[in-house]
Amino acid sequence: MSNVIVIGAQWGDEGKAKIVDWLAEAAHWVIRCQGGCNAGHTVKHHGETFKFHLIPSGLLYENKTCIIGSGTVIDPDVLRREMTDIESRGYSLQRLVISNRAHLTLPYHKAMDLAYESKLAEKAGCKTIGTTGRGIGPTYMDKVGRLGLRTGDLLESDAVLRARLEEILTLKAPLLEAFEVDVPTVDALFAWCQDHAAALKPYIGDTVPLLDAAQQAGDSLLFEGAQGTLLDVDYGTYPFVTSSNATAGGICTGSGIGPTAMHHTVGVMKAYTTRVGEGPFPTELTEAVGQHLQTIGQEFGTTTGRTRRCGWFDGVLGRYSVQVNGLTSIALTKLDVLDGLDEIKLAVAYKNKATGEVTTQFPASLHQLQDVEPVYDTLPGWVGHKVEGITEWQQLPPQAQALIARIEALLGVPVSILSVGPERDQTMVRIDPFQSNTASLKGSAVNSLPQPALVTSR
Ligand code: GDP
Ligand code: IMO
Ligand code: MG
Question: With a 6 A CB cut-off, is 267 part of the ligand 2 pocket?
Answer without folding.
Answer: no
